[in-house]
Design brief:
mainly beta, Porin
């Protein structure tokens, strides 16, 4: 009886303690936001037979954020980004498309860092530094020009992304970058921060598929070869500081995984980049090397599959302008597929959350075989409302 009474007293005391802590904690706060965007694009390109020169595009996202903090100081919450358009999203309709762009849970503490779990981009994408980080309008070399021009046969790197964030089509959609993963970020110490993410495979959301041939990964071309990856690790190390009024940011990121097709090389690739800012001016650049990742083992390659970026930007008051450039080469052994993009962008914060913009891209896709070359000039004008 003594033991029963003692045990009951301990349980009641513990329940009272946890109840008090729960009441002392902050009630989770729900924040509703999002973006609404409308664009008109005009394209002049070599491979435009039977196509209109102009098109409208809209993109609408509703974001829900839940953030709370326990009495012990533990931060926790969730995030959901919902598509709110009248048709399938171009970056999710390929496979595993759903109502949400990304969904995740998180817990964090000031002393030990942050853990995220769910369908969200990994540490390699969130920590990466390249010229697109300073681009205005739609994002320059990593912007919306891809929706208004025609892909060609071949494997070209058309945006400054490593394979896992490149998607399933030639001109880099985002349908695969939000695979289910667990990520950890350290606190920033003396300017340094590290992050790492792990994915079992490329699936996301509720789509549980244990097969080892999930998707054709990366750029178009070679589509008869399944290029899926599992046991995926991505990560990065970043540094931020300010010296004599100059803002400095640098990062090294990478991806590694096992090719499920035994005829292909495993995934091993990396990116390094830096950004400098001073009194409204900023410059940035990066270099990414994909080596022999996911190439056929039997195909000779000198590991020169790469991309590099460079750019400059200026911001004064509500006005901003930028110029960014991307050049890439995909090594296929005996041949190489090349790509160039020079992008000019400008935007103006007309009112809180309301930003009209204009962007001009000069794109040159040059895969092996002259019949597949495509030079395009893409102009985009639009307005984004953030709320």
């Amino acid at each position: 009886m003594k033991k029963i009474l003692l045990g009951s007293t301990v349980l009641v005391g513990a329940a009272a303690l946890f109840a008090g802590a729960a009441f002392a904690a902050e009630t989770p706060k729900v924040t509703l936001g999002g973006t609404s965007e409308f664009q008109v694009g005009h394209t002049s390109e070599d491979k435009d037979a039977g196509l209109r020169n102009s098109a409208f595009r809209s993109d609408n996202i509703v974001t829900v954020r839940v953030d709370g903090k326990s009495a012990a100081g533990l931060g926790y919450g969730a995030g959901v980004d919902l598509h709110a358009d009248t048709s399938n999203d171009a970056d999710s309709s390929y496979t595993n498309g759903g109502a949400a762009r990304q969904t995740f849970l998180y817990v964090e503490g000031a002393q030990w860092g942050r853990v995220e779990a769910g369908s969200k981009v990994g540490a390699d994408a969130t920590m990466k530094v390249d010229a697109s980080n300073i681009a205005r309008a739609t994002g320059g070399i990593d912007g919306d020009w891809t929706y208004f021009t025609t892909p060609t046969t071949g494997r070209v790197i058309a945006t400054p992304d490593l394979y896992l964030n490149y998607g399933a089509t030639q001109f880099g959609d985002r349908s695969l970058e939000n695979s289910n993963k667990v990520s950890y970020y350290t606190p920033r110490f003396a300017g340094f921060q590290a992050g790492v993410s792990y994915s079992i495979d490329q699936n996301k959301g509720q789509d549980i598929d244990r097969t080892k041939t999930d998707y054709i990964l990366g750029t178009a071309g070679n589509t008869t070869t399944t290029r899926a990856v599992d046991n995926i690790w991505t990560g990065g190390l970043s540094y931020q500081t300010k010296f004599s009024g100059v803002d400095i940011a640098a990062a090294a990121t990478g991806e590694a995984g096992n090719a499920t097709n035994a005829t292909l090389n495993n995934l091993r690739e990396w990116n390094v980049g830096t950004k400098l800012g001073y009194q409204g001016f900023s410059v940035a650049g990066s270099y990414g090397n994909l080596g022999d990742s996911l190439n056929l083992k039997a195909t000779r390659s000198d590991s020169s599959t790469y991309y590099w970026t460079a750019g400059g930007a200026y911001e004064v008051g509500p006005f901003g302008a930028s110029v960014t450039y991307l050049q890439s080469s995909v090594d296929l052994g005996a041949t190489k597929d090349k790509f160039h993009n020079l992008s000019f962008g400008t935007d103006y914060k007309l009112a809180p959350g309301l930003t009209p913009y204009a962007e001009l891209n000069f794109v040159d896709t040059n895969p092996t075989g002259t019949t597949q070359d495509n030079k395009a000039t893409v102009f985009i004008a639009g307005t984004q409302l953030s709320f």
